[in-house]
Design brief:
Blueprint: H1 3-17, E1 22-31, E2 41-45, E3 50-52, H2 58-69, E4 78-82, H3 86-91, E5 99-106, H4 113-121, E6 126-131, E7 137-141, E8 149-150, E9 154-159, E10 164-168, H5 172-183, E11 187-191, H6 195-198, E12 207-209, H7 213-220, E13 226-230, H8 235-245, E14 252-255, H9 259-269, H10 276-280, E15 282-283, H11 295-310, H12 323-346
Parallel strand pairs: 10-11, 10-13, 11-12, 13-14, 14-15
Antiparallel strand pairs: 1-2, 1-5, 2-3, 4-5, 6-7, 6-9, 8-9
Helix pairs in contact: 5-11, 7-8
């Protein structure tokens, strides 16, 4: 669950506890070019205070006015649809042809927001089912579903842990990647047992770990909301992380390095207890082919690929290279190999786990 959703639920519960009549809105269906996806949430207080968004601002204004005036104070959940006609789409500022459907629930004890928040904050994956006739919600442990299920009588939503990005290595690219991932609402964890790197880390709001990467991955119990990127250029550290990450349900596992070095990496991984299918999950060289040269550009390429995979976008392999990028790619390959060679010779930190 994104932190913005946690903010919406937390605000709705706090306002209810303080005695304010509060509505919790959830986008359950969209058609055409709707501005927000299904699952987007909003909390509206009786005096017009709002948290979250279902349309980027246009519909919120109408909802706030209806709530503040007392026109919209339902005793049970109601379903509202916006943008059916061209006139309504123009009135509410929806994109051409966009339509969205929202379920608005009056917050009460039986909406189970407190129990839902406690479960999510404990990293449990929860399914919330709301009976639209009574407004009563039930919570059960369940699998992640990307979209709400709605049949007019019942709304079923999935709530789970916030997405996590585990970065192996506290180097320069890691700093840019961490900052960008934070902006996209990831919980970012940076792992590097090399204290000379970790001691220089200066990006706030990032969790730091000096554990060995494989130990940390086992402890974190990576789930389908997790991504792992290995950036140390040290096979002893990167490969240890990959050995565990590729066996986990993490939705993305990538490693920095040239094509040659990633081919060698796959050969090394095949010597251990990984199947061919697990090794095939590795994204390496990491990131989309953007012709990236600088650390921030490399970070953009990595996060772009992670975002595409998270959103279910199929990325076809491509050997396309712009003429100026070919030399760059070769330079990066040479630099990558040189760095790995230096690391093999000079960096003996941590346990090797039998890796070369």
């Amino acid at each position: 669950m994104d932190s913005v959703d946690l903010e919406v639920l937390s605000a709705a519960l706090a306002w209810h506890v303080a005695g304010h009549p509060t509505l919790l809105g959830t986008v359950v269906k969209t058609w055409g070019s709707a501005p927000r996806p299904p699952g987007s949430m909003i909390a509206i207080r009786d005096d017009g205070h709002v948290k979250g968004s279902v349309s980027g601002g246009c519909i919120e204004d109408a909802l706030i006015e209806q709530v503040r005036s007392g026109e919209l104070r339902p005793l049970a959940p109601v379903t509202l649809t916006y943008g059916i006609t061209a006139d309504e789409a123009h009135r509410f500022g929806l994109p051409c042809g966009g339509t969205l459907q929202i379920v608005l629930e009056p917050v009460a004890g039986h909406t189970q927001l407190r129990a839902l928040l406690e479960a999510v904050q404990a990293s449990r994956l929860i399914t919330r089912s709301v009976d639209l006739n009574s407004g009563v919600a039930t919570l059960t442990d369940g699998e992640h579903a990307p979209l709400p299920v709605f049949d007019g009588q019942r709304m079923i939503t999935s709530h789970g842990p916030r997405r996590r990005l585990l970065i192996i290595g506290a180097a320069q690219v890691s700093r840019y990647l961490a900052n960008m991932a934070l902006a996209l609402d990831y919980r970012v964890i940076v792992c590097d047992p090399r204290t000379e790197y970790l001691d220089e880390w200066d990006v706030p709001a990032v969790e730091l770990s000096s554990e060995m990467p494989d130990d940390l991955i086992i402890r974190l119990q990576l789930d389908a909301h997790s991504a792992v990127v290995a950036l140390t250029h040290d096979p002893k550290l990167d490969d240890m992380a990959l050995l565990e990450a590729l066996k986990s349900p993490a939705f993305y596992v990538g490693a920095l390095g040239s094509r040659l070095n990633n081919a060698r990496r796959r050969e090394r991984l095949a010597l251990f207890d990984l199947s061919a299918e697990e090794i095939a999950r590795l994204h390496g060289p990491v990131g989309l082919d953007l012709g990236a040269r600088t650390p921030p550009e490399i970070a953009v390429a990595i996060l772009a690929e992670i975002t595409a995979i998270k959103n279910g976008v199929v990325i076809a392999g491509s050997e396309r290279r712009r003429p100026q990028a070919s030399a760059t790619a070769g330079a990066l390959d040479t630099q990558s190999e040189a760095e790995e060679s230096r690391n093999r010779e000079s960096n003996a930190s941590g346990k090797s786990h039998g890796l070369p």
